[in-house]
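wait is this the right file?? whatever heres the structure
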């Protein structure tokens, strides 16, 4: 395999995400999930050659940064100790890892620097003794993913993955050595919501300290393996989405918030009754999370970490108790001194190149704030509505219907 050059970077979720750094130890994934969001969004694709992180590169980078030598905005995020999401686009523990141990080496390096790291996986490899020892030594928070669907559909959606029982056992093995674990219910298939409740109960009983929930985003590339697989094994699903008023967002079809809200609150109430934290992971509900770190609640489990609050969601959440929600850039917001424009889509970069890094970022957020489309501004979020007025410089003013969070 070739060395993976782009293993670590901020993602295009910067305008609303508090943990926007992703680290992928492999460029591809060997698991065959028919709902794969990375493939639907132009990420990991098995057709290209797999590349892997050179652990020496990561070690040298963190050593250089620890000595104050900073090159680029990503290094500034690392110096600030913004948590890394390991497994942002590909699973770091798919079968390649059993032989190559690249992710294990990365974990040891991150543990050496006590770097706050969120790990996302469907693998049970992470529960083996060698990995448990490293995780127990470092500053890690593990999220293990489950699909909420009945067995007959699940078997076709998640080919080659460990069973639900094996993943639950991994939660137990990690919590035995003090590693905090979240159960990530993603995706929930419409019509299979009861499975999500069952999984939540099981995860809590096996030691999970948190659970998050997100509904299936239906991939729309007709020629993709994901679309073909879902259409074949659940032929009614596409009609369910269309009849529910689902909207196209990028390359995916997303259910409206109204079709998901009751399930989200039922799961939240169930989690609270089980004594664990709950995270709303569908974009429309992110503002309802009572955590600094969005749906994953990583601020409850990682130490000595900084969560990125120079984004539109943080601006919105800071004013949820007010009658009027206005565009007000946070006084305590931290930004890299160097430009982040290369990590934003090309349409957002247009006409910003002449501005300073600070000015350009504020302008991106202002545009998000005033957009009425699904682009990460307040209009995206359930219960947030624009008022029939603007502030003195023309920015939209919003209001919050608190009844929806009851």
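ok assuming it is, sequence goes like this
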């Amino acid at each position: 395999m070739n060395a993976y050059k782009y293993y670590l970077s901020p993602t295009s979720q910067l305008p609303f995400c508090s943990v926007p750094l992703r680290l992928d130890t492999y460029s591809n994934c060997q698991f065959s999930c028919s709902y794969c969001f990375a493939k639907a969004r132009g990420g990991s694709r098995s057709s290209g050659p797999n590349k892997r992180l050179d652990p020496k590169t990561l070690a040298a980078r963190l050593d250089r940064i620890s000595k104050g030598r900073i090159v680029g905005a990503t290094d500034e995020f690392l110096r600030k100790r913004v948590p890394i999401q390991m497994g942002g686009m590909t699973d770091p523990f798919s079968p390649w890892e059993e032989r190559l141990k690249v992710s294990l080496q990365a974990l040891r390096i991150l543990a050496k620097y006590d770097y706050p790291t969120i790990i996302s996986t469907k693998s049970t490899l992470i529960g083996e003794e060698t990995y448990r020892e490293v995780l127990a030594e470092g500053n890690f928070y593990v999220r293990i993913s489950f699909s909420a669907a009945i067995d007959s559909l699940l078997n076709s959606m998640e080919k080659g993955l460990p069973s639900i029982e094996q993943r639950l056992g991994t939660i137990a093995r990690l919590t035995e050595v003090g590693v905090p674990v979240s159960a990530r219910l993603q995706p929930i298939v419409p019509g299979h919501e009861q499975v999500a409740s069952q999984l939540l109960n099981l995860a809590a009983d096996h030691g999970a300290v948190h659970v998050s929930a997100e509904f299936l985003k239906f991939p729309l590339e007709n020629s993709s393996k994901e679309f073909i697989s879902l259409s074949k094994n659940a032929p009614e699903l596409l009609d369910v989405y269309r009849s529910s008023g689902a909207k196209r967002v990028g390359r995916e079809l997303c259910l409206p918030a109204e079709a998901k809200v009751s399930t989200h609150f039922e799961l939240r109430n169930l989690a609270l009754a089980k004594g664990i934290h709950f995270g709303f992971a569908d974009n429309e509900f992110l503002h309802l999370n009572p955590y600094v770190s969005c749906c994953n609640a990583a601020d409850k489990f990682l130490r000595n970490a900084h969560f990125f609050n120079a984004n539109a969601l943080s601006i919105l959440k800071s004013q949820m108790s007010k009658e009027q929600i206005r565009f007000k850039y946070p006084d305590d917001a931290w930004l890299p001194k160097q430009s982040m424009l290369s990590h934003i889509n090309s349409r957002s970069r247009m006409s910003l190149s002449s501005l300073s890094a600070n000015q350009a970022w504020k302008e991106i957020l202002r545009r998000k704030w005033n957009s009425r489309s699904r682009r990460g501004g307040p209009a995206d979020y359930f219960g947030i509505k624009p008022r029939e007025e603007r502030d003195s410089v023309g920015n939209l003013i919003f209001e919050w219907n608190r009844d929806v969070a009851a």
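Residues 17 and 323 are 24 Å apart (CA to CA). so i think its the right one actually
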